[in-house]
Each structure stands twice: as C-alpha cells, then as structure tokens.
Prior knowledge:
By secondary structure, this protein is an alpha/beta fold. Helix content is 30%, strand content 20%. The chain has 15 helices and 20 strands. The strands form five sheets. A six-stranded antiparallel sheet has the order 2-1-11-10-7-8. Strands 4-3-5-6-9 form a five-stranded mixed sheet. β15 (252-253) and β16 form a beta hairpin. α9 (310-317) packs across α11 (341-358), α13 (388-398) crosses α14 and α14 crosses α15 (414-424). The longest helix is centred in the C-terminal third of the chain and has 18 residues, at 341-358.
Amino acid sequence: MADRTLTERVEPAPSSPARTKRRLGVLLVFSRGVAATVAHEITTPTIAGRDPEAGLLVEDASCSREHARLELREGALWVSDLGSRNGTFVQGERVGATGTLASLGSVVRMGGTLLVVADVAPYRGERPPALAGLLGGARLDEARARVETIARAQSPVLVLGETGTGKEVIGRLLHERSGRSGPFVGLNCAAIPRDLVDAELFGHSRGAFSGAGAARAGQFRTADGGTLLLDEIGEMPPAVQAKLLRTLETGEVRPIGEDKVVPVDVRVVAATHRDLEQMIEAGTFRADLLHRLAGLRLELPPLRDRPEDIPLLACRFLETPGLTFTAAALEHLMLQAWPGNVRELRNVVVAAAAIARQRQHSEIDLEHVQGLISPGLTKSAKPPPPSEEDRVRAALAAASGDVARAAAELELSRSALYECLRRLGIRPREYRRR
C-alpha cells in the first residue's frame, strides 16, 4: 500500500473558466412549477417578460409581457419593475420603477418565476458529466471533475465540507468509479464512543477487553478490497490516529488482543468539517496523518453559496405525486443560511410536504415552510455591495473591453483604471466582442 501510494501521480482537475472570463447574467431556476437551470448573459439593458420580443423571454402566465428591466451597473445587475401586475422582488423585497442593485447570488422573483444573479460563464462550453447523487449546477463542477480525475487513484482522499454537504455521496462516487471489487464501508467517527473507535476500526479478539464477548473483524477488514469512508475524522482520538497512520503506511492492521498483524487492501476516504490544520496547532490532530491523508483533496461548497441549486434539490426531495412548490415558498428557502446544508433542506421539504398534505393543499406555499426554519438563520435581505473586481469586470463587459468607456462608467481616469486592471490581473481584450 505504501509503495504504490508514493509512486502514484494524478493529473490535476481542470480549472474553472470563471476567473478569466466572467459573464454577468441570470440563471432561470424555476418557472411554472418546474425547476431547471437556464443561463442568460446580460450584456445590454434587457426586458424580461412574456413578450416574444423580450430579451429574456419568460413563459409564465403570472408574469407581465414586459415585467422587469435588467441592466449591468457597478459590477452587478440593476433590476427595476416595469409596472407588472404581480410585482418584482429582489431578496424578498419588492422593487419599484426606480429599481435596486442585485449583486451576485441575489434572488429575483417575477410572478411564478425565480432568477439568480450569477456569473454565467461556467454554464457555457464543455462541463464535467453529471454524477448521480451530486445534484446541482456549475458550483459543483469542480467536485465532479475532481471525482473523475482521482477515482482510480489508490491514494487516500480528504473530503472537506460542512455538515450535510454530501461528503458521503463523494465517498460512494469515488468507490463506484475506482474499479475496486470490495465493498464500500462508512464509519462516522463522531458517532462512536472514543474508547471504542480503536476496536471498531481494527477489530478485536474475544475477551480482549471488558465487554468483548465475541471477536470482531473491524471496519478495515470488512472493507478489504474496497473503500473505507472515515467521516468526521477530526473526532478521532490521538492514539487511534497513530494506529491509522501506521495502517496507511504498512497496509496492515493489528486487532486488539492479537499478536499477529493482518494485511488489508483498503482505500481510505477521510471526511471532515473541521479545520485540521488549526487542530494540528492545538495539538489535537497529527500533522503526519494529515499529510498522509491530504495528498488528494476535494472540497464541497456550502448550500448557502449556491442558492441556484435549491429549487432543483427541493423538487427532487419532493416525493409526493401531484404536489408542487410556489415561487414564494422556494424564494423563502433560497434566502436561508442553511447551517445543516442539503441534509437540513431535505428535512424541511419532507416536513413541509406533510403539512401541505394534511391541509389538503396541492402546493407547498410560504405558510408551509416559514415555521420550519429556525429564526435568525435567514441571509441578509440586502445583498452585499459588489466588490471592486465585480465593478471593474461589469464595466468592461458593458463597454466591450473599451478601457476609456469603462473608466468613464466607473468615474475613474484611464491611468487609474489601468493600474487597477494590472493589480487585479484583468485583461480588457477578453471582453472585446469578436
């Protein structure tokens, strides 16, 4: 196990194009009861509505023919209502004819349609193939590409992400694509009493300790030939960390109460929401174990950073036939912070569906979801101001790469803008239309 790991080489996952060619626009994520993700780049002032001549055609009967106006301004989108009958909302607040600034990640509701302000560049061109269980948009593309790249490697993998982001899903995907013939075995280190983790992992002989009435193989031997997911590895006691490191280096386990070691062929996928480097500084996690585990890393983004995925996820979790969401209910879900991430969203959807069924409603509306989420966990209704980079990129996009026009829009001198471009590493020619 040790020699094979040391000589293994894995090509890096392809990088995202979003950093070099940002394209501001909107993602249409829900309309007429259907969740789907369609990207629309906004380069010039655009009318959104049912009018066939609208720049952003929304085939939603609850939208007006000319419902709202979207235009680039200050690194974000300026959203204004055009006298629509059902109103236009940004981050849950109604917008008038004078409009408001909607920065990246802002949720826009028009009738029964939901949009998210986003960089739409990752939705253009070739993307990694979809992976079963890893549901979402372009924010998960890096994880998808990474899975495809490292699945057949034999080295351990460290999966980082908050609780409920899908770390076990990644472990299973890596195993399914690894070509390994053995089983996938998952162990949550935080769910086992600390004094039993050693026995659970490495096994024990009969009578090895008080309460050990029968011998146990342990999870390493159970996973022989396959993959062992060690979830919440940051909770593993230091003494067990030392034994795990030895097993990773030698490919052998020594069950408690036995003198002989047993060879195993197991690929370890470790997962945690903890900051292991901070734990090393505190003396609660071994640096050499982290180095051994983290040769291959994969990180999952929190749900609050990808509100565009919530309609798709919520509708997938909705298993009741004939039951749908209203746009207002989904908008409310998209504005939450979700500390429990996808797992918490699933629980809320299941509970909301039960309430709607009990009341014999065919739609899950705002009233069904409002009481299911802890107060104080809603994201700020007012989006954060756009960053300097966002403003500069938006001005260049609106000016088609013309630095003089972009400088005038930003109220800067050309020399000041050139200095800013140099500092941010932005190349104006990338924004020139061909």
